[in-house]
Write a structure and sequence with these properties.
- There is one protein chain.
- With 494 residues, the protein is α/β, with parallel strands linked by helices.
- The chain has 2 domains: 23-161, N-utilizing Substance Protein B Homolog, Chain A (Orthogonal Bundle); 271-492, 3-Layer(aba) Sandwich (Rossmann fold).
- It contains 22 helices and 15 strands.
- The protein has helices at residues 35-50, 54-64, 69-84, 86-96, 106-121, 126-140, 143-156, 161-169, 175-183, 187-199, 207-214, 232-236, 260-264, 272-283, 308-320, 331-341, 359-362, 388-391, 394-414, 434-443, 452-459, 477-480; strands spanning 4-6, 12-14, 220-224, 240-241, 248-251, 267-269, 298-301, 323-328, 349-353, 367-373, 415-425, 447-450, 468-469, 472-474, 486-492.
- Strands 7, 8, 9, 10, 11, 12, 13, 14 and 15 form a 9-stranded mixed β-sheet that branches. It has a 4-stranded antiparallel β-sheet with strand order 4-5-3-6.
- β13 and β14 form a beta hairpin.
- Residues 193-493 form the SAM-dependent MTase RsmB/NOP-type domain.
- S-adenosyl-L-methionine binds at residues 303-309, 328, 355, 373.
């Protein structure tokens, strides 16, 4: 058939071109929201609009929309990927929108981020990414915004991610700005992580490896509570044994909540880095500590909520005939701690609801071992909590610093002579790690640092993690495939 036809006057005219999938007539366009994309959109809206945490919102939304395993995996990748890539995607979108992004309806911006991630970082055909994202917008935002979203995403689709980042960084010789765009981190965090690498004895040249590790989807880490749980069910469901720490496994076979052992609390989701620091404290030899009359060691988890490390410590305490007090200031989080500890025999543990800074007033020189898992910026867990990188501000570091020092000072007053305090943060920032410990050591003449790197090696399956530096230890996502956990072991001299 000819591609032309004649009009009434006999002149040839072009036949209308067949519409592409993304240019479909209004009657042909997708009008319903795909459930998996709707889940991802709901997660982004809760995160940006309600300051929610993605890891709490996502499972609820998946269950609400009854996604099967495949769609749940797609929704998870889309939601977390859009959150991780937000900095890069926003820079790209700013080139494609005719107004500042802050002038857009937040729901429209979240839809654009979802579309950008599909187009630039997922194996989704461009026509499907466009059609489904526009259909989602039409269903949940409105017809008007959907037209804008369609136009913007068509501009985004004109280049691949490499071409976009090259365009955005063209001519820029500032390594920090380039890394911020290419690896989707705020500039201040790139700068802080560079400083952190150097402070903990590593090369600044590792920064791009570290930032890329932050953007990798982490595998779910499991721990079977020693003496109480096992990994048989998890292995049968596809888990493989962890290579860093005993009683651990890596699970990538879908919803871990379907495991009965997880529901019972004897197997828990916990990063291997958290497992290592808890075991390092529990297994440390305490020489010269005067035992109580009952001969029972007393342990304290000073900042216990929501209870993950407390549960592992309690199980280890139960094995060793020790007892543990779990302290948490927020009543609702204290209840979460009780729930986490429920799998451990009740004679082993107790929960105190109160400020950790006052523990020493009630329990002076009482405990053999104390864990201070201090509130911090969480810069070491950006791969698991990608929204944190966009919420945190440089001022948070200073504001948390005074609390961290006060908690550590309270702990060294509550520990017995000869006892040990493990100061832990899920952040490698030197202002939250080495500086806090150094300041407390300067204020007291009865404290000394033990070799935290050796303590981690002693409880690791590898026997040589290489995490130690100047008596403290720092784990890294790009080196150990864990969160960036910091550990200092402070001993109170006898």
């Amino acid at each position: 058939m000819s591609s032309t036809e004649r009009n009434a006057k006999g002149h040839e005219r072009s036949r209308p071109k067949v519409r592409s999938h993304t240019q479909a007539a209004p009657s042909q366009r997708t009008r319903a929201a795909d459930p998996a994309r709707l889940v991802a959109f709901e997660v982004l809206r809760a995160v940006s609009g309600e300051d929610a945490y993605a890891n709490l919102v996502l499972p609820k939304s998946i269950r609400k929309h009854r996604l099967d395993k495949r769609d749940a995996g797609f929704a998870t990748e889309l939601a977390y990927g859009a959150l991780r890539g937000q900095g890069t995607y926003d820079a790209i979108l700013a080139r494609c929108v005719d107004r500042p992004l802050e002038k857009l309806d937040p729901a429209v911006l979240d839809a654009l981020r979802i579309g950008a991630h599909q187009l630039l970082a997922m194996r989704v055909p461009a026509h499907a990414a466009l059609d489904q994202t526009v259909g989602l917008a039409r269903a949940v935002i409105g017809a008007g915004p959907s037209a804008l979203i369609n136009a913007v995403l068509r501009k985004v689709a004109a280049r691949d991610l490499g071409e976009w980042t090259a365009l955005l960084t063209e001519g820029d010789t500032d390594a920090i700005r380039r890394a911020a765009i290419e690896q989707s981190h705020p500039e201040w965090i790139v700068r802080a992580l560079r400083q952190s690498l150097v402070a903990h004895g590593r090369s600044v040249e590792e920064i791009n490896d570290l930032l890329r590790a932050d953007n990798d989807a982490p595998v779910v880490n499991l721990v079977a509570l020693p003496g109480l749980g096992d990994l048989d069910e998890a292995r049968a469901a596809g888990a493989v044994d962890g290579e860093l720490v005993a009683d651990s496994a890596l699970f990538s076979a879908g919803d871990v909540g379907r495991l009965e052992s997880v529901r019972a609390g004897t197997t828990r989701v916990q990063d291997a880095g958290s497992q290592l620091v808890a075991r390092a404290l529990a297994e440390l030899d305490l020489d010269g500590v005067t035992p109580d009359e009952d001969g029972v060691e007393k342990w304290l988890d000073m900042c216990a909520g929501p209870g993950g490390k407390a549960a592992l410590l309690a199980a280890l305490a139960h094995e060793k005939g020790a007892v543990i007090l779990a302290n948490e200031p927020a009543p609702h989080r204290a209840q979460l701690v009780r729930q986490a500890l429920d799998a451990v025999p009740g004679e082993t543990w107790n929960v105190r609801t109160g400020d950790g800074r006052t523990v020493a007033e009630d329990y002076p020189e009482t405990f053999d071992r104390i864990l201070v898992d201090a509130p911090c910026t969480g810069l070491g867990a950006l791969r698991r909590r990608p929204e944190s990188r966009w919420r945190r501000q440089p001022s948070d570091v200073g504001e948390l610093g005074s609390l961290q020092r006060e908690l550590l000072l309270s702990a060294v007053d509550a520990v017995k002579p000869g006892g040990v305090v493990a100061y832990v943060t899920c952040s490698p920032h030197p202002a939250e790690t080495k500086a806090v410990v150094a300041d407390v050591l300067r204020q007291r003449n009865d404290l000394e640092l033990l070799d935290a790197g050796a303590a981690l090696d002693a409880v690791s399956l590898t026997g040589s993690l290489g995490a130690g530096h100047e008596s403290t230890a720092q784990l890294w996502p790009h080196v150990h495939q864990t969160d960036a956990m910091f550990l200092a072991l402070v001993r109170r001299k006898i």
